[in-house]
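dumping this here so i dont lose it
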């Protein structure tokens, strides 16, 4: 390490969407490894954006650093989304205002700002329940913030007793837990927070920030937004990268207590959202009924693919309310790999990739993004062929 660098950074690894690629594939790949939408923006929305770029956007000018128009459009959508409250939360009458919203360069930026706002310098640790979204740990470690991991049960519900014990007695040398990250529904496992988990999270004291990551809200149609109006230590993050088909433009948002939001606004870079990204998010919100029609199709595809994959030899598919499926393989089904079961998932991943399908190996299983009907059919056929070849050796 160069002597001016923080030595702890030698131990950290950055995010790689698809680690360990061999040679470059020669055919088009079904990219089903990052939970993007398989659908591009509708051509009419793209055409409208192209005209905006030509006629309204001045590239010599900085973006609107206040995000004002985008926030206005977003507020309407946030309010609409309250029609799908988690059954364990009571509906509040108070409306959200612009003071409850902060917009980030993807929700990744918001996750990093939340870490900076609560845990630096050496002021707090983070708690996560594995398996979960990998960015929490990656971003925390990049800032030198310790991470406490607790386990989930056989249905991937959080072991709340273990989590409470970790908060009561953090590992030796760790600062107190200041931040708890929960994904609703969780990635990679696909399950939403149940009543017991919500109850436990609501019991956490005001000194601990509870972050509910609703990246897949449009697929689960279930939100914990109401809790933000009841508890000053709750914040919801969401993204335009999934259901809204805007992963290319990096737009995410947080809904939280105005004091927390004011701090997030202080921490972000002044021009964190390029003009074109703001225009794209505004256009997507204006056309949301049209764009979110894709969600219904993907939910139907998810249920169909889940049933089909469940019949593959040795595969256990877990119920999911996201735009992806999580499955685990039972090694005893695959005699070809009996001498080296640790090679099971890497082998499956590699062979699928050779056939043209990218999926993700994470959380001790496989996470498969739902694509369009043709992609999903290929996923089923290719996975079937790979698993069958491993069964017969
Ligand atoms: C995809 C995803 C995000 C989105 O991050 P962006 O930075 O907004 O693209 C956030 N959280 C989870 C759990 C995700 O799966």
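and the seq i came up w/
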């Amino acid at each position: 390490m160069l002597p001016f660098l923080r030595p702890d950074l030698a131990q950290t690894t950055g995010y790689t969407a698809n680690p360990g690629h061999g040679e470059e594939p020669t055919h088009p790949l079904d990219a089903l490894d990052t939970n993007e939408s398989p659908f591009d923006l509708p051509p009419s929305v793209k055409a409208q954006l192209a005209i905006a770029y030509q006629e309204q956007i001045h590239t010599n000018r900085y973006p609107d650093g206040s995000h004002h128009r985008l926030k206005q459009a977003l507020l309407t959508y946030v309010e609409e989304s309250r029609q799908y409250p988690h059954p364990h939360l009571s509906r509040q009458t108070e409306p959200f205002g612009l003071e409850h919203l902060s917009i980030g360069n993807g929700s990744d930026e918001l996750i990093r700002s939340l870490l900076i706002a609560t845990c630096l310098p050496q002021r707090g640790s983070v708690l996560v329940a594995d398996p979960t979204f990998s960015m929490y740990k990656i971003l925390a470690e990049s800032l030198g913030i310790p991470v406490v991991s607790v386990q989930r049960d056989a249905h991937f519900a959080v072991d709340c007793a273990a989590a409470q014990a970790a908060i009561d007695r953090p590992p030796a040398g760790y600062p107190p837990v200041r931040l708890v990250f929960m994904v609703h529904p969780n990635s990679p496992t696909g399950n939403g927070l149940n009543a017991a988990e919500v109850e436990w999270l609501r019991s956490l004291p005001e000194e601990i920030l509870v972050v509910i990551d609703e990246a897949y809200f449009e697929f689960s149609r279930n939100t914990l937004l109401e809790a933000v109006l009841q508890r000053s230590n709750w914040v919801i993050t969401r993204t335009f990268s999934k259901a809204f088909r805007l992963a290319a433009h990096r737009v995410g948002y947080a809904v939280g207590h105005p004091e927390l939001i004011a701090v997030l606004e202080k921490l972000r870079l002044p021009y964190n959202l390029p003009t074109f990204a703001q225009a794209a998010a505004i256009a997507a919100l204006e056309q949301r009924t049209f764009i979110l029609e894709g969600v219904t199709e993907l939910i139907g595809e998810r249920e169909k693919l889940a049933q089909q994959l469940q019949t593959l030899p040795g595969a256990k598919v877990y119920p999911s309310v996201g735009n992806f499926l999580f499955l685990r393989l039972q090694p005893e089904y695959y005699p070809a790999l009996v001498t080296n079961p640790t090679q099971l998932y890497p082998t499956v991943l590699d062979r699928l990739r050779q056939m043209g399908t990218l999926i993700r190996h994470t959380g001790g299983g496989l996470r498969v993004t739902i694509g369009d009907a043709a992609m999903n059919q290929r996923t089923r056929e290719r996975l079937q062929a790979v698993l069958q070849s491993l069964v017969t050796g």
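Residues 35, 106-108, 133, 183, 187, 213, 215, 239, 241-242, 252 surround pyridoxal-5'-phosphate (CB under 6 Å).
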